[in-house]
Design goal:
Blueprint lengths: L9 H10 L12 E5 L3 E5 L5 H8 L6 H7 L10 E5 L12 E3 L3 E4 L1 E2 L7 E2 L1 H13 L3 E2 L5 H5 L9 E8 L3 H13 L3 E5 L11 H9 L3 E5 L16 H23 L5 E3 L7 H9 L4 E3 L18 E2 L6 H6 L4 E3 L3
Parallel strand pairs: 5-9, 5-14, 6-7, 8-9, 9-10, 10-11, 12-13
Antiparallel strand pairs: 1-2, 2-3, 4-15
Helix pairs in contact: 2-3, 4-6, 8-9
Length: about 325
């Protein structure tokens, strides 16, 4: 098993050695505990899968990945001996050889053109299928909060999906595929586009009610918040930035009944003033489009995202999925 044995108590190490001798007593269809302490359970698996084991021993079947990550070299199936961690061992993902990173992917439109900003439904489905087949864990953006605070362990192959602007193809093309795979995503909309060529309030509401989609602001007008307009005084610039943040927040709160917490900068650009206004509005994360993954020590108001383009091949998509960075020797 690919587990750090230095963290095992003598009781668990002994149990694993005994388990390897395969006593006839363990030939049961129900899972049996071989040994247990406050940190781990050593278990002989019966007819349960990782989800049912997580429900029983961790209290939440959605934490099945904790069991799978702890037993990477041992499939969770009947007859195997596995370890179930009971406590969070490494919430920052920092190890002696490197550190965990979480890629945030950024999409825009979906359609049949397959150009730079438009991904075809076929491409999108192939990408989601690849994530599934290669055991990537698609997590909601909100899960990054605890990770960035050093309080929450994430799956080792965690990935976040985001979609910018609020084009109606998100609802028509991407949303059905996300529902099919059960993948959460965050849709960032700029409020002037809502009900005005972009996503309608009814579509935003339907996606939010699915439990998979979080709707968050992407400004009011999609203007670059770091560029002062011609003849614009500093005070007017500050007022405009404030409106670009507060207006979409208020509209989304009104329509969806929930105060936004995350903000995607138009064109991915930000500065100190913009970040100060985010903080004043109670926003907890700010997202750029700088192409690199995120470690636990990444600044929450300058999170990185990798844009996914429709004119790139599957190999480019694979390269965007960096979930671990090794320290240089």
């Amino acid at each position: 098993m690919r587990i750090m044995l230095m963290r095992f108590t003598p009781l668990i190490i002994c149990a694993l050695m005994v388990a390897g001798c395969s006593s006839p007593i363990l030939r049961s269809t129900s899972s049996q505990i071989i040994a247990k302490d406050r940190d781990f359970i050593v278990l002989h698996v019966g007819d349960e899968d990782a989800r049912s084991l997580a429900r029983r021993y961790l209290g939440d079947e959605k934490r099945y990945w904790v069991i799978e990550d702890a037993n990477q070299a041992t499939p969770i199936k009947a007859g195997r001996e596995i370890v179930i961690p009971l406590r969070t061992a490494n919430p920052t993902g920092i190890e002696y050889s490197g550190y965990q990173t979480v890629p945030i992917l950024c999409y825009h439109r979906f359609g049949q053109r397959s150009d730079r900003m438009e991904v075809t439904p076929k491409q999108f489905r192939e990408q989601m299928e690849y994530l599934k087949n290669k055991d990537y864990r698609v997590i909601p953006l909100k899960d990054l909060l605890g990770f960035l605070k050093g309080e929450r362990q994430l799956p080792k192959r965690a990935v976040v999906l985001t979609i910018d602007d609020g084009h109606r193809s998100i609802y028509k093309e991407a949303f059905p595929i996300l529902k099919e795979y059960g993948y959460p995503a965050t849709v960032f909309v700029y409020s002037d586009y809502m009900n005005n060529g972009g996503l309608k309030t009814s579509e935003l509401t339907a996606m939010k009610k699915s439990g998979l989609i979080s709707i968050q602001p992407h400004s009011k007008t999609h203007s670059n918040l770091t560029v002062r307009q011609a003849g614009e005084s500093r005070s007017k610039y500050q007022r405009r930035v404030r409106q670009e943040i507060s207006v979409p927040n208020d509209r989304l709160t009104k329509y969806l009944g929930e105060r936004p917490r995350f903000y995607a900068y138009p064109f991915g650009d930000s500065n100190d003033l913009v970040i100060e206004e985010l903080q004043a509005n109670g926003m907890q994360l700010g997202l750029t489009v700088q192409r690199q993954p995120n470690a636990a020590f990444t600044y929450p108001y300058l999170l990185h995202r990798t844009m996914i383009f429709g004119d790139r091949d599957m190999q480019a998509f694979k390269k965007s999925l960096v979930t671990f960075k090794a320290f240089r020797q």
